[in-house]
Structure formats: structure tokens, C-alpha cells
């Protein structure tokens, strides 16, 4: 079983930066797909970024060039650096992990292990 705990959320003005962290523990497979997702009120959970076990990363157009995902070599800390934040980035952010080598713009429904979420609020 995998345990995930997010931290680093908060309130920031538009144009500012935040760094989210996700502490990962438990049974992490060497081939794992890890990702950050976000969900705003009344909206579906959407992918923000992913990183595969071979280091492939991906971002939707809405955050590309502003957000950066990374994970340490032991896969115990997943981070999301968010720069040039916009008001539309306001949401609850979740980290998620699933086993498997294939990892490319994954659907949130593929993940069973989730953190509790951390709120990010961007004001104008």
C-alpha cells in the first residue's frame, strides 16, 4: 500500500510561485507512474503533470512552461514547482501514484493511491 501526503499549498498573488511536495511511502514499484492532478469546485479532476519511471514528463497546454514536476531518485518525494501562477490555477492539488511502466498523459481514473490534497489559491 502507498501513502501520499501533500504539502506546500497556500495563497499567492497572480504571477507568484509555489512549490508543492508529496511525501511518498509504502510499496512503490520500481516502475511507477506519478502525477499531479487538480480539481476546482464543480469541475472534474484533471491532470497537471506526470513523470514516468524513465523520467518522461508531460504537461497540458494550460500549465506547460510554468510548472515543473520532479521526483528524487528514491521516489520518496514528488514535487511540483509552479511559477507564473494564474487565477485559473486555483484548485485543490493532489499527488497520485500507480504501478506500471506505461505512463503518458494518464487518466486520473487509472490511479488508486491519492494524497489528501492541498489547496492552492491564486488571487488577482
Please explain how this structure is put together.
This protein is mainly beta and 124 residues long. The protein is 0% helix and 51% strand. It has strands at 2-7, 10-13, 18-26, 32-39, 46-51, 57-58, 67-71, 77-82, 91-99, 113-114, 118-123. The strands form two sheets. Strands 2, 4, 5, 6, 9, 10 and 11 form a seven-stranded mixed sheet that branches. A four-stranded antiparallel sheet has the order 1-3-8-7, with no helix packed on it. The model has no long low-confidence stretch (mean pLDDT 95).
Order of helices and strands: EEEEEEEEEEE
- What is the total tally of β strands? 11
End-to-end gap: 40 Å
How large a portion of the residues is in β-strands, by DSSP E?
over 45%
Number of helices: 0
Segments where pLDDT lies below 50 for 5+ residues? none
Share of helical residues: under 10%
- State the secondary-structure class: mainly beta
**Cα radius of gyration in angstroms:** 13 Å
Mean pLDDT: 95
Shape: globular
Largest β sheet strand count, sense and barrel closure: 7 strands, mixed
Give a nutshell description of this structure.
The chain has 124 residues and is mainly beta. The chain is 0% helix and 51% strand. The radius of gyration is 13 Å and the shape is globular.
Describe the protein's topology.
Elements (H helix, E strand, L loop, with lengths): L1 E6 L2 E4 L4 E9 L5 E8 L6 E6 L5 E2 L8 E5 L5 E6 L8 E9 L13 E2 L3 E6 L1
Parallel strand pairs: 2-11
Antiparallel strand pairs: 1-3, 3-8, 4-5, 4-9, 5-6, 7-8, 9-10, 9-11
